Amino acid sequence: MIRGALWLVQVVGEGNTFTKNQLREAFPGVSQVDRRIRDLRDFGWVVYSSAEDASLLAEDQRFVKMGVPVWDPKARKDAAPQKAIPSKDRQAILARDGYMCTLCGISGGEPYPDDAVMTAVLAVSRRTVTTEHGHEKVVLVTECKRCRAGHNDAPIPASEAVAAALELDSRDLRRLLRWIERGRRGTTDLDRAWATYRRVPTDMQGELLDRIKMAE
Ligand SMILES: [Zn+2]
User: Fold this and answer.
1) Would you say the pTM of this structure is higher than 0.70?
2) How far is CA 160 from the centre of its chain?
3) How are the residues of the chain apportioned to helix, strand and coil, as percentages rounded to the nearest 5?
4) How far away, in angstroms, is 215 Cα from ligand 1 center?
């Protein structure tokens, strides 16, 4: 894993793509070299395949962002991947969150409005939130990979967020306060309807549209 990490940083470089063949040629005789690269994701490394970035060919992967410097034994120990979340819990969290990212609200497989070639891949992760009594607790939340990797957006002054909150009607404002306290976005009836629609097979979506319009 360490050699794979160094190869990504020194040879591939952040933002660049590599093929499975290049990976195998760089590590002749090393078995499951693909998996060693995948294991880096547990340490916050972001590597996209064509499933996550539609601009990539099937054999291509993109090294998006470096994570924990795994070659540093202390950093690696501090960041040792926490126990995997059991799939039963993961399913329950995904269902609770309406199969939507609790940060940006995108649903699984949906293209990002500001980036048409990227479709959202959802994962369940641990997030530390501060409760109203100032305690820290770890909660399980659904996040898309893009939110998980962090945004490069410039920070926004608090006054702008306050102004945006005060634009809301009282029902939405109460909802926003709940989301802030919980550290995750909740789902609204509208979100649930949208997420449910997205899970209907594509060839049946037309019929669904007719039925909704008729009932309207
Ligand atoms: Zn997101």
Assistant:
1) no
2) 25
3) 45, 20, 35
4) 33
